[in-house]
Design brief:
The protein is an alpha/beta fold and 334 residues long. It folds into 2 domains: 3-124 and 276-298, Rossmann fold (3-Layer(aba) Sandwich), CATH 3.40.50.720; 126-269 and 306-323, 2-Layer Sandwich (Dihydrodipicolinate Reductase, domain 2). Helices cover 38% and strands 23% of the residues. The strands form 3 sheets. It has a 7-stranded mixed beta sheet, with helices on one face. The protein has a 6-stranded parallel beta sheet with strand order 3-2-1-4-5-6, with helices on both faces. α5 (101-114) runs antiparallel to α10 (299-318). The longest helix is centred in the middle third of the chain and has 20 residues, at 164-183. It is globular and about 55 Å long. It starts with a strand and ends in an 11-residue tail after the last strand. It binds NADP nicotinamide-adenine-dinucleotide phosphate.
Length: 334
Amino acid sequence: MELKVGVIGTGGIGQEHIRRLTNVITGAKVTAVSDINKETAQKVAEKYGAKFYESGEEVINAPEVDAVVIASWDPTHAGYVLESIKSGKYVFCEKPLATTADECIDIIKAEVKAKKHLVQVGFMRRFDSGYRELKKVIESGKLGAPLMIHACHRNLTHIPSHTTDMTITNSGIHEIDISRWLLDEEYENGQVLTVKQNSNSSKKLLDPQIIQLKTKSGVRIDVEVNMSSGYGYDIQCEVVCEKGAVRLPDPNKVLVRYNCQRSYEIYEDWSQRFIEAYDIEFQEWVNSVKYNKLTGPSSWDGYVACVTADTLIKSRNTGAAEDVVTIDKPQFYK
Ligand code: NAP
């Protein structure tokens, strides 16, 4: 039987997910949509044969909705997640889970009270075949223990409304989650270093920034988060271990020999670079909902990412490394 999915938010990624749920993966059907931008949502509803609702709450509580996808604006996530838990429905929430750690704690409390894992957060890199291969090599133990991660997150350019904090909460948050997942351990402290301003970035934006994290066992992570690389969307990651190193592969692109040069294409943005990861993420989510056992990133993962992002922003303001302080992990998430 098909899983009936309601989608809140029919902007860029919302429409991408509706297309993927309808045309790419199996076992799901989009039955209801809403967006604050009603005109777009109505058009999308018509295109996919879904029902349009005036509000996200109506989508969540609609009888023809078994599970919810939240792809609306960041500050709306927590409220919709809480409403989904209240109605006992599975919910896939695009990152970030919430915009404050307190909201994440409210979600954790509600989920624990419901005694059921209902929430998955959209950290799609965990579904990327390259990152999965990287993790497999680390866990095989053949390279010894990981010591350092060197990574970079480069965007071609940034939207005009992008802010210095968004570099951490919106882009850097993927790096925060993926390093923690690769190493399977928690952070002790973190710091943001500022760099000479790129003259091509907005004058109001500190760009690039360098994120530094240290795990409880002492692994050091450095990530260049660069919103105006000027050449493409480029994600790099190398894990240096005791006996070797392992590096994230570049996407499969043909090598062209032409005009005395060798070259291959670099993607423009995340939607192209991680398209397969999103497809796998949604197929696995739909399957796990049907089996009644979620396997993807949890509310706890969303909470830790949020606390770590807050810590990094604090450190940029204090100029010193700051401890990452979380609540005790509830038994429910162990
Ligand atoms: P977007 O194109 O601006 O779409 C967001 C949509 O949500 C817009 O249509 C917006 O309407 C609508 N919206 C705002 N408030 C709402 C509300 N109260 N109820 C319902 N809809 C509301 O942004 P996007 O790029 O699709 O991003 C959406 C979410 O996905 C963000 O949280 C973002 O962080 C996340 N995201 C994740 C990834 C990833 O790699 N996992 C990538 C991209 C985005 P208006 O345009 O009228 O404001």
